[in-house]
Amino acid sequence: MIVRVVPGGGPGAGSREGGGMGGGALEVDGVSKRYGDVVALNAMSFEVRAGELFGFVGSNGAGKTTAMRIILGVVTADAGQVRYDGAPLTLRTRRRIGYMPEERGLYPKMKVAEQLHYLAQLHGLGPAAARRAVTQWTERLGVAARRDDEVQKLSLGNQQRVQLAAALVHDPVALVLDEPFSGLDPVAVDVMSEVLRERRAAGVPVVFSSHQLDLVERLCDRVGIVRAGRMVACGPVDELRATGGGRLVVDAPDAPTGWADGLAGVRVRGRDGSRTVLELAPGADDQAVLRAALASGPVREFHPRRPSLAELFRDVVGAGLGAELDLGDGVGDGVGDGDG
């Protein structure tokens, strides 16, 4: 895997005690990892640029969490190397990365402010800077009123907000977030999304994994799709969708079920009432599709559209695995309204 953070700036760029945005490149180069006979990572490669949101998606067990743990030094790779600014990562440089683990890492019986202050100092901030950062992030994430509460007394959504504050409190040069949106209500999702966009605008590279592909598609500049420890598709969302094979939406209310099944170069990808989504092979005749639909009666809708990220995920990862993911509204049956 190669994760590269290109130097950058933007609003809020700079440095402060223990942290600071901007900096050199973060590279995870040729990393592989085995657990017994199971290959968790197999020479995966991708990059994350400064000021970019990168979505890291795959089915359960694909290797996403292992990759993130190796970046942070929680797990040791069997092969390959993690570097920052051209040099192997040290404890000091890893302290400058913000990490949100999948299993979370808060002390349930510690008070929110006490815990964040402690974690900020572990990352190198002095007492005064830590207090300022705790105030800033608890206010920004909407948990200021719960600063004196024990973490275990918070709702799961508020615990998630505190966990994000713990990843941000030291002004990290990069963010590595494992399932940051898990368990959040829509309001909390909006808050989390806005904060990640702010970090992107400030020049911070952000890597996050998620099973909510509609959210990944909406937020991310680029996406990497992982299967069995390998990166099998990677690039800007629009480019991935453009190379995912053309879809054709046909609404033929009087056509019988299966009207398109025998057409040359045509694959039925989904049905929703009278609407059918077709995938056309290169060179397939869309006018032949239109004639077949018209043979049964009027056609109310006939237009191309690009596949959604969820449909692309199904194509890349394989039939049946997409059911493990939250594919978002209007995506599960392969029928949607245009490109959006």
TrEMBL record:
Keywords: ATP-binding, Hydrolase, Nucleotide-binding, Transport. The keyword Transport applies. Residues 1-21 are annotated as: Disordered. It is an enzyme of class 3 (hydrolase). GO terms for molecular function: ATP binding; ATP hydrolysis activity. Its EC number is 3.6.3.-. PROSITE patterns: ABC_TRANSPORTER_1 (PS00211), ABC_TRANSPORTER_2 (PS50893). Transmembrane segments: none annotated. Residues 7-21 have a biased composition (Gly residues). Residues 26-253 form the ABC transporter domain. The keyword ATP-binding applies. PANTHER family: ABC TRANSPORTER, ATP-BINDING PROTEIN. Belongs to the ABC transporter superfamily. This is ABC transporter (Partial match). The lineage of its organism: Bacteria, Bacillati, Actinomycetota, Actinomycetes, Frankiales.
